[in-house]
Amino acid sequence: MKLMTKEISRMAQGQYSMGNELETQNVVAKFFDPTSQWTWYLMNQDPDDPDYLWGIVRGFEVEIGSFSLSELQSGKGRLGIGIERDLYFKPRNAKEVYDTVYSGKHI
Predict the structure, then answer these.
(1) Which DSSP category does 48 fall into?
(2) CA atoms within 13 A on the CB side of 77
(3) Domain-embedded: residue 34
(4) Which residues have CB under 8 Å from 38's CB, separation 6+?
(5) What percent of the chain has pLDDT over 70?
(6) Per the structure, how many domains does the chain have?
(7) Distance (Å, rounded) from C-alpha 29 to C-alpha 4?
(8) Which pLDDT does position 106 carry in this prediction?
(9) Which domain holds residue 73?
(10) 57: which DSSP letter?
(11) pLDDT per residue over 73-87, tens digit each?
């Protein structure tokens, strides 16, 4: 599965200057490992280094930070399935996503 489309990249790069500001930007894509609880919610992407992504990560804990597109693309998970993109995810306010995920609920 193609994780990053031109449209997702355009939206994520457009928010890059907002850094980690949750209230004023959206999560534009959701990536997940179908064999674990790990989920990555993309907020922005560096236009000069498209491998550098920033967003909300739900793994062992819920954190805000950077992650790598190339690592998502090469990750295979426990069953060798690979990371997938939620095709039905619609952009949502990052603060709402963070609060929902932090409270233990799924999006």
Answers:
(1) T
(2) 18
(3) yes
(4) 32, 57, 58, 59
(5) 100
(6) 1
(7) 9
(8) 85
(9) 6-102
(10) E
(11) 998 877 888 999 999
Task: Report the predicted TM-score, pTM, of the whole model to 2 decimal places.
Answer: 0.95
- Domain assignment present for residue 107? The answer is no
Q: Using 50, 70 and 90 to split pLDDT, how confident is the model at 28?
A: very high
Q: What is the mean predicted confidence (pLDDT) over 79-106?
A: 94
Full strand arrangement of the beta sheet holding 29-32: 62-68, 49-58, 39-46, 29-32, 84-85
Which residues are bridge partners to 65 per DSSP? 55
What secondary structure does DSSP assign to 6-36, as a single string?
HHHHHHHHHTGGGTT-STT-EE-EEEE-TTS
Does 1 fall in a domain?
no
Q: What is the model's pLDDT at position 57? A: 97
> Which CA distances in Å does 60 have to 2, 14, 68?
25, 29, 18
Output b/e per residue, 3-21; b: 16+ Cβ within 10 A.
Answer: bbeeebbebbbebbebeee
Q: Which two tokens stand for residue 46?
A: 């560096």
Is the per-residue pLDDT at 88 higher than 90?
yes
